[in-house]
Amino acid sequence: MVATDYMTAEGQEIFEENGYYCFYDRWGAKLRMPKKNGYYFDWVDFPIKDISMEALKKYKWPELDNKECILKIREKVKYLYENTNYGLVGTAVFGGGIFEQPSRIMGMERFLTSIITDVKFADRIMEKITELYIGNCLRYLEELGEYIQVFVYWNDIASQTGSMISPKIYKKLVKPKDKQLIETVKSKTNAKIFYHSCGAAKDFIPDLIDIGVDILNPVQVSATGMNTARLKKEFGNDISFWGGGCDTQHILPYGTPDQVRNEVKRRINDLAPGGGFIFSAVHNIQDEVPPENIMAMFETLEKYEVY
């Protein structure tokens, strides 16, 4: 494996540094991954160092996608739309979500601290990100909106055991911005809105439904409060669940094939009745997962044929 084997956005280059592959993303943050046994790039340095309006004024915000780039994508998407039966999934969000991205340009601890110590700063940084995303969505959907069926938006607002911010703070600071973005997207396409938040997202689901979210992903069944039978009962008439098909933290990597089969049956029985369920493992299948468990998951799914 060499640095050039990894793909980044146009104009960005991978370089090597002290046993790591590194690059700077379009937001100016530095990411790196170990050369040996590395699977992911992690954020390690951030362009915004201080919680201050002055730091925001000095920060160089990223440029929107240029027309040429979008037209290249349009050409490929149009071909797939006209010549295949694929469901086409797309996005124009070029970073984390409105709540998630600030942590990628100033660090999570610093951003979460700012919500308490300088709410005007936190609000302004999310406002600016919202403006950028809306601008990019308008450019993108003007060319591709008629072709895509699902618009993806990821905005992790929960952790394993609870929310990363209180629902009260979400309603005040984040929800209006999420709503503005989603309304913009829906004004330009009939695509369903796919909202990704890992973790214990249950308390936010009523707000997500309220702002027009159609699909919740990844349905992290091992997180607090994410009981699939209860989620379906409470919210199944108003939102679809994409994921939740098999626990990827415990069962898929460490269970037996029979445990995987039982897990898949349980999740399908919980989430599939009445429709509104797209089967998928909760999250990415990691390298420690035994191949026989992967086969057990998909063979069990195949037995249902149509659910």
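The record above closes out task 2.4. Task 2.5 opens with a second protein, given below.
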Amino acid sequence: MVSGRTSKRAARGMAKVFLLAAIAGSLPVGCSPGQVHANGSLVAAPAGSLSVYQLAERLGMQVVDVTIMMATLRDSHDTVVIYAEPGSLAYVNGRVLAAPRGGVMAVDDILFVPQDYEPAIRSALRMPSTPPPPPPLPSMPPPGREPPPTRQAVGRLGTVVIDAGHGGQDPGTISVYGVREKTIVLDVAQTVAERLIQSGVDVRLTRDGDEFIPLEGRAEIANRCRAALFVSIHADSAPRNRAASGFTVYTNRTPSRGSIAAADAVIGDLSSAGGDSRGRHEANYRVLVGASCPAILVEIGFLSNAREAANLGNQGYRDRLAAAIAAGVLDYLARR
């Protein structure tokens, strides 16, 4: 884990050098929607299921232990233990649930449960949790009188983990100009982190340089620090449709209300900054189903599109995108 409170100046300088010097060195393995990538970023989750991390988020609990055979979820009042097939079942505070049973299985090393486990477990908790109603929107001050965000006002809302996709031996997709996704998204992620820190948010970066972080390790960083939000930043590619353009924000296929709210906030601010929105989409990216907090994945544009690739190679354009993503995160934190 890399603390976002350390200076980013040196790392940003390195990122800019890499960006100018980057050349195509391998075939794209990037983030085209609707396909299983070579890096295993999409998980073929069973229909109508939740990962144990998603289940924990919905129940307001934390995953404290997990293997492909069992998972333990815990909060200050309750402990839930779930066992996989064969004979899959769940225990709540040491008592077995009579129903449902079965259907718990590991897919790509992630444990999934049928969705009907959630209400059954919820009703058996000592302190039954219910999804909170959406808070009312805060009243906005007149134009020109907006108070600056303070560390006390925003920082108390929790930690945000910013994930720059790919890195190290995994370059991501390669732009039509030979620039690598891993370099572009690192620069954007660092700028997002800087802006959030300036607004008093506690930030963690999954990587702060050109290093490879396994997919399962990225969400685990958010889980360990009990993040309020996980944001993964990528760039898209559609080699068979080079006219494809715009940004996309993904949630998992069974998103929580927090994930949807965060996605909508980021979409709104990116659109206000002049971005061409492709809207919110759903996909079981490994980093999303592995996070036990609201989680989104932002595809900032298509490196297979000549115009967008040129824009993403421009520092000013990347800074504008980063400012919009940071603004969306702040909007979400203020309203959650």
